[in-house]
Sequence to fold (242 residues):
Amino acid sequence: MKKRKIYVLATLCLSFILVLGNVELSFATNETSFIAQTSDSVVKQNEKELINALNSFEGMSIPELNAYIDEVYRKSNSKTVLHSVVNPTTEILELKAAWLAAAQIAKLKGYPCAAKAVEHSVLGISYEENANCDGLFRNKIVATSAYKKYLKKLKSSGNMTIREEITFTKGDNADLFFALHNATITIGKYVAEYRTHVYDLFDFELQWYDGDIFVDAVNNWAWLFQNTHVLNPVEINVYFKE
Fold:
């Protein structure tokens, strides 16, 4: 009975997301208009459907999210076997929704930064945290030994700025390890405070995910990873001061 309930929920959610037309928006997420920020043409054309997907996924459990991904997979295989004429935009939209479901699974597994990076990659929107407020990435970065090492290096050097590559290990912070792959850190001394900028280009490289988060938690991961073409490289900029 429970499996049937999850299957029905996933099917209804898929149908709901892919209904085109006038849909009243509910901004449960903190994102502003996608159209103004994204360079992804499918996102621009289907902003309402993707917002509704994000809002729907936030209230779903991991089994429900996996059931949703399974349903997209089933539909994709069905189209392939039957050699159906598929609307390319609809197919991309379905895959994007499946990736958003996978991102929500990562969030529920305790990897909110990695989830946020994937979510923004799906939508084609760069991610930025302002220096004047606490942020998701900032709060994790300042607690790492990697960040503390570079801050200490600047303080002891007598220089005003330092700019180097920074690597977050799994042991230091697993969430940042998956979210920031080839990051650079710039720290500058300004009067009585230190200002930091961490930058990365998120492009979802396989080696960072093999055997972790998605492989262990997401159904049909191998199939989903074959469809990274619906993702976008996006910049991640984290600014903070202390």
